[in-house]
Amino acid sequence: MLYREAGQYKTSYAADMAVFPILQDQIGIAVILFIGFVVVPLIGSEFLLNSVLIPFLIFALAAIGLNLLTGYTGLLSLGTGGFMGVGAYACLKLTTFFPQVNIVVWILASGFFSAAVGVLFGLPSLRIKGFYLAVATLAAQFFLEWCFIRIPWLYNSSVSGAIEVPLRTIAGIPVTGPTATSLTRYLVVLAIVVVMTWVASNLVHGRIGRMWMAVRDMDLAAELIGIRLLRTKLLAFAVSSFYCGVAGAMMVFLWYGGAEADVFAIDQSFIILFMVIIGGLGTLIGSFFGAALIYILPIALRAVPTAFGLPIRPAAAEQLTFVIVGALIIVFLVVEPAGLARLWQIGKQKLRVWPFPY
Amino acid sequence: MRAPSSREAALGEVVLAVEDVLLTFGGVRALAGVSFDIRKGEIRAIIGPNGAGKTSMLNVVNGFYQPDSGRITFKGEVRRSMRPYMAAHGGIARTFQNLALFRGMTTLDNILAGRTLKMHRGFFWQLLRYGPAMREEVENRRRVEEIIDFLEIAAIRKIPVGRLPYGLQKRVELGRALAMEPDLLLLDEPMAGMNLEEKEDMSRFIIDVNQQYGTTIALIEHDMGVVMDLSDRVVVLDYGRKIADAAPEDVKRDKNVIRAYLGEAYVGQD
Amino acid sequence: MDILYKIFVDPFVQMGTSPDLLVQTLWDGLVAGVLYALIALGFVLIFKASGVFNFAQGIMVVFAALTLVGLHEHGVPAFVALALTVGVMFILAFGVERLMLRPLVNQSDIILFMATFGLTYFLIGLGQLVFGGNPKVMITSDLYLPSGAIEFKRFGGYVSLQKIDIAAVIIASVMVAVLAVFFQRTRIGRALRAVADSHQAALSVGISLEQIWVIVWFAAGVVALATGIMWGARSEVSFSLQIIALKALPVLILGGLTSIPGAIVGGLIIGIGEKLGEFYWGPLLGGGIETWLAYVIALGFLVFRPQGLFGEKIIERI
């Protein structure tokens, strides 16, 4: 009853094809944006901003990137960590060479470098499919990891081998570097993620999204209706890597403030993949759900026992997280292979008919 | 039924011709030097016992298989072989024996996917969606809705195709092929698995497509009643060879055809 | 010009002038290759019989080795610990079949593949919780595995063959032979191959899928245990082994996912190729190319032969 669409008539195709055709959805999005941009800055604590929301948003963006490639186009990729890293290192070099340019510009521009690398490693997808393609992306991942360590030019030859993020400002306010406040960084991250999510939504609801999904569902039939397989797949690699690259740049510049190469190791690729699987392959909202669950779970696990007065070693919390995440993946795949996004849809359906059962 | 002579007069020049097409898989000869043509505006049936090479023939026309030798002439252009993308671009659309729908998408999206070649708004506009890309979407949605009305599937347009019954799925697949606005429509057993009512509906759609849109149709079918009623000319394949090529009434009486389908004992019976 | 010389001429010159180093490198490559092949064998077993690509094979190796060492640390005699570990691997196989494979029996391959991801993380966490995250020493002497090395004075220099490596090669060869015979000659082996081809057809002739899966995951577990013992004896038992197990993937690409001889040949090619590449060409690039060289080799093969050297060609029908 709360979610009833009865009475909301669409009088044009455009209205029917809107991303949020139902009024309740439109209100919901407005409310979320309001909370994000207005309420949280007013009442959010340092911890909430720095350790929960900023990383959640960044991981969600990376998950969107991987979802475009694996969920919408059906190309399994294990190179996400590497592509994120390309973005981070590209951003560092760009801002090192041109420090006067707005850092947000460079964060977005670094996505193009990731996209280029993504296209390069996506070329084998012409001949290789499925699991074999995943192994090709592993080649990308390990090669890029090697590059991050072995090419000192990439990290400005710093002695520690790590990226050190310099101070950058926008309109006099520090945005990156040690003096940037978490509120500033949060707002920048939120703005970037909101805009890029909107763009991703536009893509998947239109011609390009349909082409990707056609390639995923049956690439032979897709070819026979005129879709060019290689171009479509490479476009998926490009856009996906762009998103991962921007997420990687934001991770280093707007969250950690610095990074060692192992931030972008194979583990990162797996973590983002789990977010996408649990959240829901082929959905944008699933990327957010998955990021929330996988990222917040360890934090919650550490917080809950202490709330009850039981101490738990950080290492044990970490290990317990592995156990729970691993079990969760299997449980999800058994119960709902379509992930949290499908559960959300089912929930909305129940709301539609509430208080009736069906 | 139509008067044959006036329709014969209405049929046009050859739109597709295959010459001496040879196709082998390992040691098996799927097609052993087949030649026939299809004229513009006609409904051409391809029949034959199982394993005769009918689907392989369509696959060659589509560009899915490359023949070992022979030629394909389409719209005047002679080719050694076709590629799927070239076939689609040239105006060839197709349905499949075992259904090749995009199961993760709704009916509407499947048919919209068929409009891919007609949608040109570039990547940059797709990023924005509002503006030229949206106008193009709406325009194509309008065309797709015409097809949906024509095929009487409006009630199921938002349902994921994986959930539809078989007969409706076949109709959606036809819709997707029609969305391409093809010059040549290849139908691989469009009536398979249907009951009488569904066959009548599908037959009506095929005739309407041929008469309203002027689409040339090549049709593989096992139901002889359908073949006799719908087609202008019939080509009969057996073990990869062509054994007859004539109007339906003549093919029905052809000795070679009877021998292939029913066996030697029935040749000579009436 | 200088670069071309460095890439195409110099390494071969080096091979020629110090043949003892070449032989040493080849031997090291052979041993690594044999061990990769063992891991790949576990993959092939499970894939052949259940169509599942078991991403967790690597962690099963670590888990098996940890269980063995962990039990021994708590005072259990070596061979008893060995028997108990075999038992644990059986319980694991049983658990996997019951809780993971059975509920997912109708799902697509990619879903099952992702389920094994979940299994991997589950075992990593469980292993660390129960046994601790620190590396451990394999109990070689208690298992009567040889240590020390045989040294030759040959090829103009010294070549040193670790006895444990020789033992590894022998044990691996025996295991492969036994498995190959098992698959080809026995009734159960035939049933395994039937299940690999089609679950439904196998069911319709009365083959119990559940039994087959337990058997094959148990076999893979035993192979994992043997692999873990060998790997652990050569270095140490730690969770980093799990990443090395990812190296089995290029091996599988080369050898095809369904071929036991393919796993062996693939393993040897990758192992030797890697070691040669690292030793003779690695310095040109700053070293450490072992981490990705295997994948790039496999990638090269894939582009020309997507089904691998021994794999079955997939013909798509529409």
Number of helices of chain C: 14
Distance between the termini of chain B: 23 Å
Name of the CATH superfamily of the largest domain in chain B: P-loop containing nucleotide triphosphate hydrolases
Mean pLDDT of chain B: 88
Spatial separation of the terminal alpha carbons of chain C: 52 Å
Helix content class of chain B: 25-40%
Query: What fraction of residues of chain B sit in β-strands?
Result: 15-25%
Morphology call of chain B: globular
Q: What can you tell me about this protein's structure?
A:
The complex is a heterotrimer of chains A (358), B (270) and C (318). With 358 residues, chain A is mainly α. Helices cover 71% and strands 3% of the residues of chain A. Chain A has one domain: ABC transporter involved in vitamin B12 uptake, BtuC (Orthogonal Bundle), CATH 1.10.3470. In chain A, strands 1-4 form a two-stranded antiparallel sheet. A two-stranded antiparallel sheet of chain A has the order 2-3. With 270 residues, chain B is an alpha/beta fold. Chain B contains 11 helices and 10 strands. Chain B has helices at 4-10, 54-62, 84-90, 107-113, 123-128, 132-150, 166-179, 196-212, 224-230, 248-253, 255-262; strands at residues 14-25, 28-39, 43-47, 69-74, 77-79, 92-94, 184-188, 216-220, 233-238, 241-246. In chain B, the strands form 2 sheets. Chain B has a 6-stranded mixed beta sheet, sandwiched between helices. In chain B, strands 2-1-4-5 form a 4-stranded antiparallel beta sheet, covered by helices on one side. With 318 residues, chain C is mainly alpha-helical. Chain C has a single domain, classed as ABC transporter involved in vitamin B12 uptake, BtuC, CATH 1.10.3470. In chain C, 45% of the residues are buried. Chain A binds chain C through residues 76, 124, 127-132, 135-136, 138-139, 142-143, 145-146, 149-150, 220-221, 266, 270, 273-274, 277, 315-316, 319-330, 333-334, 337, and chain C through 53, 99-100, 103-104, 107, 109-111, 113-115, 117-126, 128-129, 133, 243, 246, 249-250, 253, 285-289, 291-292, 295-296, 298-299, 302-303, 306, 316, 318.
